Amino acid sequence: MTVSRVINQESGVRTDTREKVLEAVETLNYRPNKSARTLARGADAHIGLIYANPSDSYLGRFLHGALEAAQRTDSHLIVETCDNKSTASYVASAMRLVRANVAGVLLPPPISGSDAVLSIFEESGTPVATVSRFSQDPNALDISIDDKGAAAQMTRHLIDLGHRRIGFIRGPADQASSKLREDGFRGEMQNAALDIPPDYIVDGQFTYRSGVSAAEQLIDLEVPPTAIFASNDDMAAAAIGVAHRRGLVVPGDLSVVGFDNSASALSVWPELTTVDQPVSAMASAAFELVREAVSTEPQNTDTPRAGPAIECGLIIRGSSGAATQTT
């Protein structure tokens, strides 16, 4: 419980985290109010959502699912936005929701991975449902897909098409899904006894702009890959754009695949082969879990309460094809 340890001047809290929490506490005059939280758990409960994901497509689908669930459960959704990758902004948004006495909270990535934010809601007794945290945290429900397995399945799709030189654009290092997708890619390449040159894995930030830079690095290599697996659709769409500008035919010269099945997958030509991540369904399921939690008495938090994994699969479209070069 990071906030409690900071307020009570206990040890075991990193200096930079302590400073950010104290700054937010001072700015917002934070005081936990558990009795008010109990009163907030009525039939028309207010559920808070903190959003910091840079992808507009992800935001739209997430809000769609959360709002539909709110309507079904006679609830209200209160949305807080904050600066991406700013722990101080995350903490400030969390404290504002605590001060607003929301009955429960819904946390999508990347903020779902913030221990500092979860500790604030734990201290105030506010139920939390996270999306894609990939944790057995006993204080939060979690809804996720099998990112690692889905990435392995997509990698196998490219291998089955005859690709042996496959480049990978990974996501932000601070998001658990980024590592899981990279692990799935690496694992399936290893299973196929295929080498991954160090310069075949490049950094991205789940944004179109970062995808442009990453794809340029891969395509401009002396021996470029015959396929690029981008760990989200925005970056994959960017890779297709770079390929077109380099005079490459997709998928004749270069196959490109993504992950999410977002609007970006249908906004490029050829349309994108991708992993179908049902973001709306994940948001809806997480909302219903936290809504159920606020309607019942607090449970023993010694037992993990992770929610069920949501199924996903591949959507095969025109951006992936047989490799014309296999060596």
Summarize the structure.
The protein is an alpha/beta fold. It is built from 11 helices and 11 strands.
How would you sum up this structure, described in words?
The strands form three sheets. Strands 2-1-3-4-5 form a five-stranded parallel β-sheet, with helices on both faces. It has a four-stranded parallel β-sheet with strand order 7-6-8-9, with helices on both faces. The chain has helices at residues 2-7, 15-28, 34-39, 56-72, 87-99, 115-124, 147-160, 176-191, 208-219, 233-245, 279-294; strands at residues 46-51, 76-81, 104-107, 128-131, 140-143, 166-170, 201-203, 227-230, 255-257, 274-276, 313-315. The chain folds into two domains: 2-145 and 280-296, Response regulator (Rossmann fold, 3-Layer(aba) Sandwich), CATH 3.40.50; 147-277, 3-Layer(aba) Sandwich (Rossmann fold), CATH 3.40.50.2300. The chain is 42% helix and 14% strand. This is HTH lacI-type domain-containing protein. Keywords: DNA-binding, Transcription, Transcription regulation.
